[in-house]
Each structure stands twice: as C-alpha cells, then as structure tokens.
Specification:
The structure holds 2 protein chains of 2 kinds.
Chain A: E1 2-11, E2 14-24, E3 29-33, H1 40-47, E4 55-60, E5 63-64, H2 70-76, E6 78-81, H3 93-100, H4 102-105, H5 109-122, H6 124-128, H7 139-151, E7 157-161, H8 169-184, E8 188-192, H9 196-202, E9 205-210, E10 213-218, H10 220-225, H11 227-233
Parallel strand pairs in A: 3-8, 3-9, 6-7, 7-8
Antiparallel strand pairs in A: 1-2, 1-4, 4-5, 9-10
Helix pairs in contact in A: 3-7
Chain B: H1 2-32, H2 39-57, H3 61-85, H4 92-113, E1 119-120, E2 129-132, E3 135-138, H5 139-161, H6 163-173, H7 175-180, H8 185-211, E4 213-214, H9 218-233, H10 238-259, H11 261-278, H12 285-298
Antiparallel strand pairs in B: 1-4, 2-3
Helix pairs in contact in B: 1-5, 1-6, 1-8, 1-9, 1-10, 2-3, 2-4, 2-8, 2-9, 3-4, 3-8, 5-6, 5-8, 6-8, 9-10, 9-11, 10-11
The chains are: A alpha/beta, B mainly alpha.
The complex binds adenosine-5'-triphosphate and magnesium ion (MG).
C-alpha cells in the first residue's frame, strides 16, 4: 500500500535518512524500531510531506507522492500522529478535532461532523473535555486527542510516532488496544516505537532503523530470534 | 471630572483607530510569530492610492475607501512574499530587518510619486459635531468608532466562526501541527496578511478622512501607534489589541489635556514601559503566556 524506496532526507548538511526502503502492506501493522536519532521521525515526516526528500520515492496506493505537500498527502488518505502530540493548546478539544477534519470541511462538512460525534463516542474522555482547552489535558488525554484528530482526516493509512512515549503503563496498554482496534477496522498502520515489547504484541512486520539505514527487516518471529535486537530491545531485564 | 470624561471620549475615538492598527499587527504576529515593521508604511501606501483616486478621478468617499484598502492589501502582499515567505521561518530577525528595509523602499517610492509634503484627503462628515449633554464628539470620530466596532466584530466572526478562521488559529498556535492536519499554511498566512492589511487600510482611511490630509510620515506614525497598542494588550491577542488601542487613546488624550503636547508621547512610552515591566506578556497576553507555559511543562 505504501512503498518507500531509497529515501534520502537531509537537515542542511546532515543526512538523517541514507537510502531507506520500507514496504507497508495494506491492512497490516508495520513497526519501525530504532535507537534515538536513528531517523524514525524523519522518515514519518518525509512520508507525511512535512519534509522534502533529497532522493528516493514514496508511493501510496500506486501513486507517486514524493515531495507532495502535507495537505495533499492528508487528502490522499495518510494521517500522522506526530511525536510529542502537537495538539493546539489554546484551542478547545472540539476545535482541535474540527481542525483535524480541515481538508474535508469545504466538501463534506456533514460527514465530518458525524465523524466528530463518532470520535466522542469512541473517546468519551474527549467528550467530557470537549469545551476545555487542549493544553489543560493530561499527557494521556492529549495522546488520545492527537490520535482522534488524525482519525478526523479519515485516513486509510495512519502513521504513529512513538504514541506510548511518556505515558503511564495503563495508558500505554490503552493506546495499544486502540491501535489494534483501528487496524481491525481496516486502517493500515505504520508505527514507530521504542517499546519493542508492546510493539511485539500488535505488529505484523518489523523494520529496524539505525543511523538512517534499515538494519533489519522481518516478521515478529524472526525479530524475537535476532541476536542484536534481543540484546538491544528485548533484553532479559525486560526493556 | 467633566474634562476627564470629555478627554476619555476623544481618546476612545482615536483609540478605536489605534485598535484597528493593533489588530492588524496582532493578526500578522499571530500567524507568523514575526514582526512586520512595514505594516504602517503599507497602510500609508494605501492611503496615497486613495488620495490618487480622489485627485485624479474626483472619486467619492466609498471609492476612495476601496482604493485605500486595495492599495494597502497589494503592498501588504508584496511585503509578505518578500520578507516572510521568501525568508526562512526560523530567521525572525532577518524578516524583521528586511521589513524595515522595505519600509524605506515604500517611503522612497511614495515620495517619488508624490513629491509634495502633504496631500488632501476627502473628509467624512467634516466639521459637524454631535452633542451628548455636556459632552461632544466630532461626527467623523463617531463614524470612526462605529466602523471600527463593526470591523472588530467582523474580524471576530471571521476568526471564530469560519473554516478560514479555524485555520488561522491553528497556524497561530502551532504551524507544524496545522500542516499535519492538512492546512495549507502558506496560503492561510498570505490571506491572514491580506486581512490584516485590509483592516489597516480601513484604519488608514478613517484616520486620513478625519485629518483630511496625509503625508508620507503617516507610515511611521501608524507603525508606532499600532505596535505600542499591540504590545500594551499582548502580542497575538485580539481582545488585547482592542484594549491596548483604547487605553493608549484615552491615556494620550488625557496627557495632552493636562500636561501638553510635548509630554503626551512621553507618557505613552512610560505606560508601555510600565506594562512590559510588570506584565511582560501585555495586559491580555499574560494569561495566555502562563497557560502555554503550563501546557508545555505537562507534555
Ligand atoms: N530539525 C533538525 N535539524 C537538524 N538535525 C535534525 C533535526 N531533526 C533531527 N535531526 C537529526 O536527524 C537525525 C534523525 O533524527 P530523528 O528525529 O528522525 O530521530 P528519531 O529516530 O526519531 O529519534 P527519537 O527516537 O529520539 O525520536 C538525528 O541525528 C537528529 O540529530
Ligand atoms: Mg523521533
């Protein structure tokens, strides 16, 4: 569904991605693991049109979207749940969600508003807080909001950047059950995680990114057996 | 006491114009987080477009107003493309300095086209006065107040009731998150700039119509007053811009009456200094500043 080939992305002179090939099959949860600074966020931001790649290509549902604007990528059906949430702190929870549907407001406003109600049903905590400013929410609630805001674009493919970062274990479990539920409802997911144990419980396929390159590519079974990954991510200490 | 109230009335009338100028500044600062020093000169250019229409075609008030607004919007868009779109977002100082350079360019350009010191501008309801018991107000001031109030309500409706306004707020709060949500931030910024210039053009028209004459120095004056009023209220705050404008107007009017014209501007600067010392975020910006800090510490 989503094919990334030979992707190179720079920050000035620094090459953060040095030729990345990743394939995300439809209906699956694909997970990208990797140490800090490996280029995981850079990869997602390049796919989402927030960064322009220097070389390589991104293909979505057979169409070339390399270098497309973020607005165009959203319209094609890809949504990003960014690292550190990035909600609009001084806007109400409701307005945050409506802003998520921005690309749809002109043409399918009614449908977008129906989705808003559906979102409130699925995330009751957001309904309770609908009129509050998003900046007053707890970290976990902000993460729910970031996920719900991305869903408001009605994506067929969801990119999630470390959704468990900084959350309490109970909330992490909730986030992962939402990921599984979304996937079962048909959304393709590309998940970036450092929490390999949790990722193992949901993902169908793994990539390991290291210093801007893919260092491993395999299914969960192969990953659990890989020695390097064993030591770095699934160490007996429990990670 | 009667003097004081009369001064406040006069102050509110001119303060309404300051508020419009501050609103334009705050809208631009809100979406860009960068200062546009050339805001006043773009309005000045618009006012000269109005004068040109008046002199060349003997245009009526409405046409002059439209010419003024269009002139301000066109020059505003020119500034946006040059100083803000073409310059990297993280280079706020480069943008500010280049907006200063463009200021000089606009002033030179206008002076070349209009070499005299002052030019005539058509007045609104010139010379007539409205009385409220012991108090009175020039009819042109009253018109200014009414039009400014309508413009503020219109702006609030635009920002809080429309899709475009939602996008403007999203870009102001977090441009990256706005892009994630699929907002075309470049277009929204240009349009917000155009709205700010249109507001400025309206303010310029009202002020020039009150004075019935203009000079190229109007640009400096407009940047000064708008900037001070915005800083008083809080950068990026819409209610702050209105409050800052009205406060500056009333303080100036009273300083002028009680202390004289030499002291008037001094008092205005001291007021700004006091506000910035005790409430660095401005009168209305402080709460937003604190809320944002608290929110950031929670993430
Ligand atoms: N805005 C930036 N300017 C310059 N260099 C950057 C920028 N953002 C990231 N980098 C560099 O690019 C490389 C990849 O960063 P990236 O954020 O993609 O890593 P990551 O895998 O997401 O890390 P983390 O797990 O910490 O989120 C790092 O070396 C980082 O220092
Ligand atoms: Mg990252």
């Amino acid at each position: 569904m989503l094919e990334v080939e030979g992707l190179v992305t720079n920050y000035g002179m620094i090459e953060a991605l040095k030729g990345v090939d990743i394939s995300v099959p439809e209906g699956r949860i694909t997970c990208v693991l990797g140490p800090n600074g490996a280029g995981k966020t850079t990869l997602l931001m390049t796919i989402a049109g927030l960064l322009r790649p220097r070389r390589g290509s991104v293909t979505f549902e057979g169409r070339d979207i390399t270098g497309a604007s973020s607005a165009a990528v959203v319209r094609r059906g890809i949504a990003l749940v960014p690292e550190n949430r990035l909600v609009f702190p001084d806007m109400t929870v409701r307005d945050n969600l409506v802003a998520g549907a921005y690309t749809r407001l002109a043409r399918e406003r009614g449908e977008a508003m129906a989705d808003l109600d559906r979102m409130f049903e699925r995330f009751p905590v957001l309904k309770e807080r609908a009129a509050l400013n998003a900046g007053t929410l707890s970290g976990g609630e902000q993460q729910m909001l970031a996920v719900a805001r991305a869903l408001m674009t009605k994506p067929r493919c969801l990119l999630m950047d470390e959704p468990s970062l900084g959350l309490a274990p109970l909330i992490v479990a909730e986030v992962f059950s939402i990921i599984r539920e979304l996937n079962e409802a048909g959304t393709t997911i590309l998940l970036v995680e450092q929490n390999a144990h949790m990722a193992l419980t949901v993902a169908h396929h793994f990539f390991l990114l290291d210093q801007g390159r893919v260092a491993f590519d395999g299914d969960p079974g192969a990953m659990a057996e890989d020695e390097v990954i064993q030591r770095a991510y699934l160490g007996s200490a429990g990670g | 006491m009667a003097d004081f109230l009369q001064n406040c009335l006069d102050g509110i009338a001119i303060g309404a114009a300051y508020a419009l100028l501050a609103l334009g500044f705050t809208l631009i600062f809100g979406v860009l987080r960068r200062l546009n020093l050339s805001y006043g000169p773009s309005i000045m250019a618009g006012v000269f477009a109005g004068t040109a229409a008046y002199m060349a075609f003997n245009a009526g008030l409405a046409e002059v107003a439209i010419a003024t607004v269009i002139g301000a919007v066109v020059v505003g868009a020119y500034i946006e493309r040059l100083c803000f779109w073409a310059i990297r977002k993280d280079m706020a100082v480069a943008s500010m300095v280049s907006s200063f350079v463009i200021w000089m360019q606009i002033e030179e350009g206008v002076t070349l086209l209009f070499p005299d010191r002052t030019y005539a501008f058509p007045g609104i309801l010139a010379d007539s006065v409205v009385e409220f018991g012991p108090f009175f107000l020039r009819a042109s001031s009253l018109a200014m107040l009414a039009i400014a109030a309508l413009a503020v309500l219109g702006l609030l409706a635009l920002i809080y009731r429309t899709h475009f306004g939602l996008a403007v707020r999203a870009v102001s709060e977090n441009p990256e998150a706005a892009r994630v949500a699929g907002v075309n931030t470049g277009l929204v910024t240009l349009l917000a700039f155009a709205c700010a210039s249109a507001l400025g053009g309206l303010a310029g028209f009202l002020i020039a119509a009150g004075d019935q004459q203009i000079t190229p120095l109007f640009g400096l004056w407009a940047t000064f007053k708008g900037l001070i009023a915005m800083m008083l209220g809080g950068m990026g705050s819409i209610p702050g811009a209105v409050l800052g404008g009205l406060l500056l107007g009333t303080v100036e009017a009273n300083a002028l009456w009680y202390l004289g014209v030499e002291t008037r501007d001094l008092i205005a600067y001291m007021l700004l200094f006091a506000v910035l010392t005790f409430r660095p975020g401005g009168l209305m910006g402080q709460a937003a500043l604190m809320a944002r800090r608290a929110a950031e510490s929670r993430v």
